[in-house]
Specification:
The complex is a heterodimer. By secondary structure, chain A is mainly alpha-helical. Chain A contains ten helices and no strands. Chain B is built from 20 helices and seven strands. Classes of the chains: A mainly alpha, B mainly alpha. Chains A and B meet through helix 2, helix 7 and helix 10 of A and helix 2, helix 7 and helix 15 of B.
């Protein structure tokens, strides 16, 4: 088995397995810790509060937009760019069809080349601007630890190798991209990248707790 | 963990790290664990925190206050904790950590939840800080004056030493002085009114005002010498045993009198504790409703049982106590009371659920060593009030009022601070005219 075959075969499935089992365990184990029942008399539904918080905390509110505009703009730029690339870049769609589900998806939109470039530029700009802020802002510097840096760099390398592999001119470049993505997937469940899932749990708990009181912050 | 030179607690008390870890382990549930897991260190919370706003010191970033508990979580109860520990990736919480973080957990967090509003993960830092305070106290740390206030509450019935005898004496004096009835220890009543000792000792007119308003509306109410103190310094200080004693006193008094309603006076945290945590601290549902005085008066006004002459002395603005509005959900009632009463009412910006804290909530008011930073925080409130052009600021929390009064004196501010119950009681339409 060649190195390329190893990366595109067993190593890929290993990374995917670690990701799925790791993420699943993080969520299940967290919820299994449990929480005491709230015995106070609710003013309104906690479920409504949880749903409200899930939506509300996706956008700045409470008059804070001006204070957090940089975070909002760069965060959205990066996340939207990344999601568009992951889900709609033509090579990714082909990979999902052939390697992941084995079914053609003619209805699934593929990014044209110009769309890829825009999405990639947005994702890179967002990530770089966020990282510059992490390195320069006193608050973020006080908060940051090694996990924050590893997560950013793994994501950056995966995006960079993805751009190099776009033309699919060389199997080695494609394998390099897959290897970097595999590193990201394996790191994911053990890191703060898990916020992609834990955000929903955190928002829901706060929304439910405060929603019962009558106001979702 | 973040290195924070210069923040070491100014004493050499022995620190029981194991006790702190055990307490944190016991208190971390899925909700707190989800907060500790979800923080992405984005730092937006600093933009909402009055302590950071006033000092621009990155140590006053709310997310930093998650760190002691995060360290314990990642080493003990979090998913993959064992793996992290085995690989040496989950360092222990140390005595130095506890000493470094003590001022941040106590002195510069009023548990106001402004940071929760701005957090993309909606992390409730206030609840993590409340639990962390319990762990720090278990370790032997905590501001001595705050802990003393809690001990006073346990031993004397009140953080300011208001014993049952002092209560009786002062109520008798106030009733005579103001020619109003202040019933104490009626065997049966519909409503149990509680008081905060801050009111009784520093703002006794508030107690008189509540009595006048309830008497005017014909409410069947009483105070009780068995359960009168509404503040709960057990919760504020992180002393869980004192918190339970304080809740239990009110519950036992209410049950013995058979009341349907317990009214919390002008005190924000007292409302938050009794309304939203009382049953949880006690471990059973409360057999009565708990309402803040503004909620109760608003209900009486809706029923047509209160009539006020318009307050036209000056323009007024309203300061929302965090534990009544943002964390309590009773934001609207104070405004309902002011509506049609204060003829020139002006909202601050931001206001209501998004208002800035006074700087003295969460027990910070009781910490002498936090006075300077509190005064700096108060400058935010001063600017807010001045922007409205109103010469008077009304509130519904004696703790906010005391905090603001002290800062006002320290900074030489000239605006007037008012209590909502006092201005309402002063402007009741005489019964015959009503």
């Amino acid at each position: 088995m060649s190195l390329v075959e190893l990366i595109e075969g067993p190593l890929w499935w290993l990374a995917l397995t670690v990701l799925l089992l790791g993420v699943g365990w993080r969520i299940v184990a967290l919820l299994m810790v449990g929480k005491p029942k709230d015995l106070s008399v609710a003013r309104r539904s906690g479920i409504a509060g949880a749903l409200e918080a899930l939506l509300l905390h996706s956008v700045p509110h409470g008059g804070n937009l001006g204070r957090t505009l940089y975070h909002f703009m760069t965060g959205y730029l990066f996340h939207i760019g990344l999601f568009v690339l992951v889900l709609f870049a033509a090579p990714h769609v082909a990979f999902i069809e052939k390697r992941l589900i084995g079914v053609e998806m003619p209805w699934w939109p593929e990014l044209p080349r110009w769309g890829f470039i825009i999405a990639a530029e947005a994702a890179f700009a967002g990530l770089i601007l966020l990282y510059i802020h992490r390195m320069t802002d006193p608050v973020k510097r006080a908060l940051s630890d090694i996990d924050d840096h590893i997560g950013v760099w793994l994501t950056f390398i995966a995006m960079l190798t993805g751009c190099l592999a776009l033309q699919e001119a060389h199997a080695g470049l494609r394998a390099l991209h897959m290897l970097s993505v595999e590193a990201l997937l394996i790191y994911f469940p053990f890191s703060r990248l898990m916020h992609a899932f834990t955000f929903a749990i955190s928002r829901s708990y706060t929304g439910a707790t405060y929603g019962r009181r009558g106001f979702t912050p | 963990m973040t290195d924070m030179p210069g923040s070491i607690a100014p004493d050499n008390r022995p620190v029981d790290v194991a006790a702190a870890v055990a307490k944190m382990e016991a208190l971390i549930g899925s909700h707190l664990g989800s907060y500790l897991d979800a923080c992405v260190h984005c730092g937006q919370c600093a933009q909402a925190c009055h302590f950071h706003e006033a000092t621009q010191d990155p140590r006053h970033t709310p997310a930093l206050k998650l760190q002691p508990m995060t360290r314990v979580w990642r080493r003990t109860k979090a998913p993959f904790a064992g793996l992290r520990k085995a690989l040496g990736l989950a360092p222990e919480l140390t005595e130095q950590d506890l000493r470094d973080f003590e001022p941040l957990i106590f002195d510069t967090c009023t548990m106001c939840a402004r940071c929760t509003v701005v957090c993309p993960m909606a992390i409730d830092v206030a609840s993590v800080v409340a639990a962390t305070r319990q762990a720090f106290v278990a370790a032997g740390l905590g501001p001595p004056d705050l802990l003393q206030a809690a001990d006073n509450a346990r031993d004397k019935g009140s953080p300011l030493g208001v014993t049952a005898q002092v209560l009786e004496d002062r109520c008798e004096w106030l009733a005579d002085e103001h020619e109003t009835e202040i019933p104490l220890d009626k065997p049966k009543a519909e409503v149990l009114l509680t008081i905060s000792s801050i009111e009784l000792m520093k703002y006794p007119d508030s107690v008189v005002a509540m009595a006048k308003l309830l008497n005017y509306a014909g409410v069947d109410w009483t105070l009780s010498s068995k359960g009168y103190e509404s503040t709960n310094f057990g919760v504020l200080s992180g002393k869980g045993d004192v918190a339970k004693i304080a809740v239990n006193r009110i519950v036992e008094a209410a049950e013995s009198i058979g009341v349907r309603t317990v009214v919390i006076p002008e005190c924000g945290h007292a409302y938050g504790v009794m309304r939203w945590s009382g049953a949880n601290i006690l471990g059973r549902p409360l057999p009565f409703e708990v309402v803040h005085i503004t909620e109760y008066l608003a209900a009486l006004k809706r029923q047509g049982r209160l009539a006020f002459a318009p307050y036209a002395k000056s323009a007024v603005t309203y300061h929302d106590p965090c534990q009544i509005s943002r964390r309590g959900g009773a934001t609207a009632d104070a405004r309902y009371l002011l509506d049609g009463f204060a003829t020139d009412f002006r909202e601050m910006t931001p206001t209501g659920n998004y208002n800035w804290c006074c700087g003295g909530g969460g027990g910070v008011q009781a910490m002498a060593r936090a006075a300077d930073v509190r005064h700096e925080v108060f400058r935010i409130k001063m600017a807010q009030v001045e922007a409205t052009g109103a010469p008077a600021l009304v509130s519904a929390c004696a703790n906010c009022r005391l905090t603001m009064d002290e800062s006002k004196a320290a900074l030489g501010w000239d605006k007037e601070l008012l209590s909502i119950v006092e201005i309402l009681a002063d402007n009741l339409v005489p019964k015959r005219a009503a």
